[in-house]
């Protein structure tokens, strides 16, 4: 493979990887404008974010078997076409219910790009280069939450929120054309693979009932659901309670994303001195204390914009330590079912995150308390599951 070909493949796969984060984060600054245009409130608009998370959760379980059964490109084309049509629909909706439904369909489409890009890294690149390529794709995932809301803030002010979905439509179209022209079919379809629900469900059940998997997958998903609560509640928190502009909101979101990304990189260095288990425990204790302090302060009105941003920064930094370590420990027992375990872990994470997002959206009040309450619940439950799961694992390992 020539160097030019090598980097062109990475560029296309990186663009596919960015589709999901841009779809989640770019329209956040437009929440107040969407609420005003569709004659609703921001809490109701945030349900369109929850439906997107539900779509991603379902899509991860759907596309894994399809990509193995039909090859990589045909399911990818189908998903991108669904994404393009749903994005067009989102740009011209006239009711909030239509937006919520179309965002679910849009998520199902974007999920094809995410799952296919991961699978194609393994297909197209030598094993020795996989870690390097995945690191570059993770960089795209890290940069997207910093760029997308900031760009979305400026676009909303200049052209209106409808334009954001037209930009997403353009991004989906670019990915479809680029995949068709420049991505090779990297996997021969497995016609023997059954798509019947029973064997697929049985395979997922074998993975889920492994104690190490459910301990760390649930711990990671519960802790990570605090991020989903923050994303859902942040437009109301910053733009309605603290009255910051759409552009300023984008920059604050980028700063907080930097905390999460930066701590995940520091985690790599910390692993030289501490085990994954130690880092998870320490981060969850810190995260729980931070969230409880944040909740008490929110109830009594102690915190302004600066203090709120600082507490959220610490909370998200803790997730940067929890997420990579719980992911690694969840997948550790698997060799044969690693793909199913990875898909199930992602589905659990998105499913629990969607519940957290819905929990925030149910409270149509101009207060930080609902958002922070869900953050407290997610942190404390994660710590509880970790404690009980580790006791179970220790009892299994005793002679």
Automatic annotation (TrEMBL):
PROSITE patterns (alphabetical): MFS
Q: Where in the cell is it found?
A: Cell membrane
CDD domains reported in the protein's UniProt record? MFS_MdfA_MDR_like
Q: Per its record, what are the GO molecular function terms?
A: sodium:proton antiporter activity; xenobiotic transmembrane transporter activity
Q: Which domain of life is it from?
A: Bacteria
What the entry lists under InterPro entries is as follows:
Efflux_drug-R_Bcr/CmlA (IPR004812), MFS (IPR011701), MFS_dom (IPR020846), MFS_trans_sf (IPR036259)
Descriptive protein name: Bcr/CflA family efflux MFS transporter
């Amino acid at each position: 493979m020539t160097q030019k070909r090598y980097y062109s493949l990475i560029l296309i796969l990186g663009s596919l990887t960015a589709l999901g984060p841009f779809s989640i984060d770019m329209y956040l600054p437009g929440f107040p404008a969407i609420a005003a245009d569709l004659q609703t409130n921001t809490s109701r608009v945030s349900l369109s974010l929850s439906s997107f998370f539900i779509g991603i959760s379902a899509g991860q379980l759907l596309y894994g078997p399809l990509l193995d059964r039909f090859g990589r490109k045909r399911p990818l084309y189908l998903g991108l076409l669904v994404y393009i049509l749903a994005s067009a629909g989102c740009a011209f909706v006239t009711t909030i219910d239509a937006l919520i439904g179309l965002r679910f369909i849009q998520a199902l489409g974007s999920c094809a790009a995410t799952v296919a890009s991961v699978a194609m890294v393994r297909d197209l690149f030598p094993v020795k280069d996989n870690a390097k390529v995945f690191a570059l794709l993770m960089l795209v995932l890290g940069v997207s939450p910093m760029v997308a809301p900031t760009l979305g803030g400026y676009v909303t002010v200049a052209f209106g929120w409808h334009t954001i979905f037209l930009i997403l439509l353009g991004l989906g179209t670019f990915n479809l054309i680029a995949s068709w022209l420049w991505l090779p079919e990297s996997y021969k379809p497995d016609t023997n693979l059954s798509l019947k629900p029973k064997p697929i469900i049985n395979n997922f059940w074998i993975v889920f009932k492994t104690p190490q998997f459910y301990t760390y997958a649930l711990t990671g998903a519960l802790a990570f659901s605090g991020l989903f609560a923050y994303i859902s509640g942040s437009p109301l928190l910053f733009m309605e309670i603290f009255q910051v502009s759409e552009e300023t909101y984008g920059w604050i979101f980028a700063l907080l994303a930097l905390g999460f990304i930066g701590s995940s990189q520091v985690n790599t260095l910390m692993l030289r001195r501490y085990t994954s288990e130690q880092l998870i425990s320490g981060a969850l204790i810190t995260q729980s204390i931070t969230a409880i302090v944040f909740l008490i302060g929110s109830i009594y009105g102690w915190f302004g914009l600066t203090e709120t941003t600082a507490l959220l920064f610490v909370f998200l930094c803790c997730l940067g330590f929890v997420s990579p370590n719980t992911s690694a420990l969840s997948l550790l027992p698997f060799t044969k079912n690693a793909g199913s375990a990875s898909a199930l872990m992602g589905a659990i994470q998105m499913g629990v995150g969607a519940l957290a997002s819905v929990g925030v959206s149910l409270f149509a009040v101009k207060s930080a308390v609902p958002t922070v309450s869900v953050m407290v619940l997610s942190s404390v439950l994660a710590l509880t599951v970790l404690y009980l799961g580790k006791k179970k694992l220790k009892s299994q390992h005793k002679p």
